[in-house]
């Protein structure tokens, strides 16, 4: 059981064990689909990750066997388009399915903790909210960066669970926010 006092590694180990167990054990997608009428959905959005930065897309310099198994046994998207070159706008478009410039927070870059009035409006239709209506459980692990709590946040935009930083500019090693002094947070509905 992963609780609010668990460390980052413990939480990630729990999520990996529960959420990716079938994929990482090599269960083919067709076999997994017969067990459930709904497929599991794992969407990975990584800032600054290029097309050829993982081995399943041909990078000979890095070995990413777990990602490669997910790509092999699931769906590998080969013609993707990021509608923005910056973090918050890309996340706005992904979570809402709309062009980022149609939503106020999609025009603000970077979204800073200093401006508490800017963020993804709670109640706006989002991908995780739509998935919840279809019976899915939703979680966001990593960076939110679409407005600061308590006014904005992943739990107000359709996610059941959140483990990560709410702002941007986090240090890769300590995971502490640089500008806003944010740190990893566990939130659950």
Describe what this molecule looks like in 3D.
The chain is of the alpha+beta class and 189 residues long. It folds into two domains: 1-80, no CATH class; 84-189, no CATH class. Helices cover 28% and strands 7% of the residues. It has seven helices and three strands, in the order H-H-H-H-H-H-H-E-E-E. The protein has helices at 8-19, 21-24, 29-35, 65-73, 87-96, 104-107, 127-133, and strands at 139-143, 161-165, 185-188. The chain has a three-stranded mixed sheet, with helices on one face. The longest helix is centred in the N-terminal third of the chain and has 12 residues, at 8-19.
Helix/strand layout:
Layout (H helix, E strand, L loop, with lengths): L7 H12 L1 H4 L4 H7 L29 H9 L13 H10 L7 H4 L19 H7 L5 E5 L17 E5 L19 E4 L1
Parallel strand pairs: 1-2
Antiparallel strand pairs: 2-3
Q: Which bin fits the share of residues in helices? A: 25-40%
The amount of beta strand, in percent, is: 5-15%
What is the count of distinct domains?
Answer: 2
The gyration radius over C-alpha positions equals: 17 Å
Overall, the morphology is: globular
Number of strands: 3
Q: What is the structural class?
A: alpha+beta
In terms of per-residue confidence, which ranges show pLDDT below 50 for 5 or more consecutive residues?
Answer: 1-27
Largest sheet: 3 strands, mixed
Along the chain, the helix and strand elements come as HHHHHHHEEE
The termini sit apart by 16 Å
């Amino acid at each position: 059981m992963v609780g609010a006092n668990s460390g980052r590694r413990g939480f990630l180990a729990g999520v990996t064990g529960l959420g990716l167990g079938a994929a990482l054990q090599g269960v083919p997608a067709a076999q997994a689909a017969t067990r459930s009428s709904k497929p599991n959905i794992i969407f990975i959005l990584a800032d600054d990750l290029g097309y050829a930065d993982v081995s399943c897309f041909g990078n000979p310099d890095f070995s990413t066997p777990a990602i490669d198994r997910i790509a092999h046994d699931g769906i590998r998207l080969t013609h993707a388009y990021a509608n923005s070159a910056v973090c918050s706008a890309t996340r706005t478009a992904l979570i809402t399915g709309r062009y980022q410039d149609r939503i106020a927070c999609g025009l603000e870059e970077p979204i800073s903790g200093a401006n508490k009035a800017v963020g993804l409006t709670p109640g706006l239709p989002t991908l995780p909210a739509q998935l919840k209506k279809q019976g899915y459980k939703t979680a966001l692990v990593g960076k939110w960066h679409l407005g600061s709590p308590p006014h904005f946040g992943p739990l107000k935009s359709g996610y059941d669970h959140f483990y990560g930083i709410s702002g941007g500019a986090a240090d890769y090693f300590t995971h502490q926010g640089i500008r806003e002094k944010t740190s990893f947070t566990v939130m659950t509905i």
